[in-house]
Amino acid sequence: MKLHSAALFFFLFAAAPLMAADEPAPVKIGIIGLDTSHVPAFTKLFNNPKADGDLAGFRVVAGYPGGTDYPPSRDRVKKFTDGMRDAGVEIVDTIPELLAKVDVVLLESVDGRIHLQEAIPVILAKKPVFIDKPVAGSLVDAMAIYELARRHNVPCFSSSSYRFSPGVVGLKNSEQVGEVLGAETWGPCSYQAGTPDLCFYGIHGVESLFTLMGGGCESVTRLKTKDVDLVAGVWSGGRIGSFRGIRGGKSTAGAVVFGKNGIVSSMDGASYEHLCREIGKFFRTRQAPVSPEETIEMFAFMEAADESVRRDGQPVRIAEILKQAADQVETRLQEISSSTKGAAGQGS
C-alpha cells in the first residue's frame, strides 16, 4: 500500500523528534583554567561533530578562565578565553557556577601550584576530573588531591600526553624489546619557580620514563649542569632508568628501551588525540588508566631529584621523600576540611 505524499511527510516530520530523542544527550564537560594551548586543542577534539570512539558523545559547554601571576598563565588566559567564547563555549565567573552546568571536569590550569585549590570544589561536588600535568605544585598537594578523591569516591587521574603517544606505547609493548631492563628518555626541561624543577616541562620525559619502567623506583640521583639535567633512578631488581632534560637550547623528545630481546628507540612526542581518547574512556568507565600510586611515585621521583642536588648529587631514597610528604598530608587535609566547613557556614 502506498502512502499519500502528505501522509508520508507527516510521518517523517512526526518521527524526527522521536528518533532524536533516542540519541543520548552528550556528556557535558567543563574546563577549569583557560590559560594553556591544551584548552582549544582538547575542545576541538571533543566538540568535533565527526568524533568517534572514545571521543564521541562529549561536549565542552563551559569554561572558567582562572589564571595566576605566572607569566605563561597571565599572558595567555585572555587569548584562550576569547577563543573559547568565540567557539561557543559559555564562560563563567566561578568554579561553583561551572560545576552546576557540567557532568565532568578537565582541570587544565597551566600553573600546578593552584591545582589542589581548584580540585577541592570539584571533588566535593563529586564530579569525575582529569587533572592535566602536573597534578599539583608539590608532592604533598598531589597526595592530598588523591586522598581527598579517595575519601569522596571521586574518579580522578592525571597524565602527560606523552604517556599515550604511539611511540612510547609502541616501545612499551614491543616484542623486539621484550622484558624491560632499563630505559632512557630525553626532552626539553624548563623550570617553574615554586615547584620541583622537573615538574613543569621535564614531566613529559619523566612520564615517558615511568610509562616504560613502571612503578618501583627506589632511589634517585641527579647531576645538574648549566644546560642539562641528568636524573637516574634505580628500580627494584637493579633496573636503571634515566631522564636527560635539556635546558640550553632546542630539544626533541625521545626514548630508548633496553630489553631482553633488544634495544629499541623512538623519537615520538605528544599526542593530544590519544590522551583525549583515554580521558573520554575514563569519563565513561570511571576507571583511571594511570594509578594514583604511580603518579605519586613519579612526583616523588621529581622531588627526590631536587633533594639530590641539595645533597651535592648523592642518591636519595624515594621512601624517604614519600614519608616526609605523608607526614604533612593529614595536616593539609584537616586544613581543607576546616576551610570548607567555614565556607559552608558563611554561605548558610
Protein described:
- The protein is α/β, with parallel strands linked by helices and 348 residues long.
- The chain folds into 2 domains: 13-161, NAD(P)-binding Rossmann-like Domain (Rossmann fold); 163-328, Dihydrodipicolinate Reductase, domain 2 (2-Layer Sandwich), CATH 3.30.360.
- 43% of the residues lie in helices and 20% in strands.
- The protein has helices at 5-22, 38-47, 71-74, 77-86, 95-99, 115-124, 139-151, 166-172, 203-213, 272-285, 292-310, 318-347, and strands at 27-32, 58-64, 90-91, 104-107, 129-132, 156-159, 180-188, 217-224, 228-235, 240-246, 254-259, 263-266, 316-317.
- The strands form 2 sheets. A 7-stranded mixed sheet has the order 12-11-7-10-9-8-13. Strands 3-2-1-4-5-6 form a 6-stranded parallel sheet, sandwiched between helices.
- A hairpin with a 3-residue loop joins β8 and β9.
- The longest helix is centred in the last third of the chain and has 30 residues, at 318-347.
- The radius of gyration is 23 Å and the shape is globular.
Spell out the key features of this protein.
about 350 residues, alpha/beta, Rossmann fold, Dihydrodipicolinate Reductase, domain 2, 2 domains, seven-stranded mixed sheet, six-stranded parallel sheet, 12 helices, about 20% strand, globular, nucleotide binding, signal, Gfo/Idh/MocA_oxidrdct_glycsds, NAD(P)-bd_dom_sf
Give the structure's gist in a few sentences.
GO terms for molecular function: nucleotide binding. By secondary structure, the protein is α/β, with parallel strands linked by helices. The protein has two domains: 13-161, Rossmann fold (3-Layer(aba) Sandwich), CATH 3.40.50; 163-328, 2-Layer Sandwich (Dihydrodipicolinate Reductase, domain 2).
